[in-house]
Structure formats: C-alpha cells, structure tokens
Amino acid sequence: MSPDPLDNTRRKGQAVHPMLVGLPLGLFATSVVFDLIDLATRTGAFNVPSYWLIAAGVLGGLLAAPFGYLDWRQVPRGSRARRVGALHGAGNAVVLLLFACSWLLRVPEARVPGEALLLSLGGAAFALVTAWLGGGLLARLGRRDEGGDRAAGAH
After folding, report:
1. Helical H runs in the chain?
2. Which terminus of the chain has fewer CB atoms gathered within 10 Å of its CB, N or C?
3. What is the count of structural domains for the chain?
4. Would you say residue 47 lies in a domain?
5. Which residues of 15-35 are buried (b: 16+ CB within 10 A; e: fewer)?
C-alpha cells in the first residue's frame, strides 16, 4: 500500500487544517456576538475585546490556510471533492478579507463603525457556508475506512 499523500499535513494521523480552523471561527463568531451586545447596550465595553478577537482570528485563519491548500492539492483533479474544496478555500479567503477590512476600519476604544459591523456580519455569514462546505468534505468525502482507503465519495 502506498503512503498517504496527505501525511505531509498530518500529525499523528490527524489533519492539521481541521485542527486549526476552529480557533479563527470561534474568534470571529465571538467578535460578532460582542459587536451585537455593544450595539444593543451602547456601553462600549465590548469594542476593545472585539477588535483583538478579529485580529487574532485573521492571524489564525492565515495560519490555517496553507494547510488547507496543501490538503486540497492532494485531492484528485476533476473530483467533486476538489470542486467543493476550491469553493471552501475561496470562500474562506473572502471571510478573511471581510474580517480584515472590518478590523482596519476600527479603532479599539471608539464606537464600531456601521461599515465594520456589516463587514463582520458578512464575514460571519460566509464563514457559516464555508465551514459547512469544509465539514462536508470531512464528513462525506474525506472519511477513511478501516483499511485506510478513501471512502467512495472522495473519488
């Protein structure tokens, strides 16, 4: 049996990309919740944490992206998994861009500009779709059977 081509992006049998994506997704989601709480309460108490959550989320996303790209390059050309993976990756690039732009429009101690909030909400909406696509790749297309072979849906 030939070695798994994805081993270069796996550690102890676990793919690196799925391990890394949870952090930026959680940071982005929490920043949106904080923005909405601040919008409702008008206290300003959540502006600074939201600012830094977005910054950390963008950095985390930039860390996860190369591992996702390396995984995607190993997927057979012309396969459904390759097409879904391309949509997942492109969508995540949009997510990072929307949150990065939201972050650039903010000043930590000032009120969150409406444009920044809209960009974050758009980023969160895109993130829901791209996370669903990525989860589908893992759940249906990338599952391995007991012998280590890819499930039929991955081809």
Report:
1. 16-41, 47-73, 80-104, 114-136
2. N
3. 1
4. yes
5. bbbbebbebbbebbbbbbebb
Any domain includes 97 = yes
Q: Is 79 helix (H, G, I), strand (E, B) or coil?
A: coil
Q: 19-64 pLDDT, tens per residue?
A: 899 999 999 999 999 999 999 999 999 999 999 999 999 999 999 9
The answer to whether residue 149 is domain-embedded is no
- Say if residue 81 is exposed, middle or buried (CB neighbours under 10 Å; 0-12, 13-18, 19+): buried
pTM of the shown model: 0.82
CA distance 140 to 107: 42
Residue tagged 């920044």 (tokens):
116
| Domain encompassing residue 47 | 17-143
The closest alpha carbon to 106, from 65, 27, 53, 41, belongs to: 53
Q: Domain for residue 123, yes or no?
A: yes
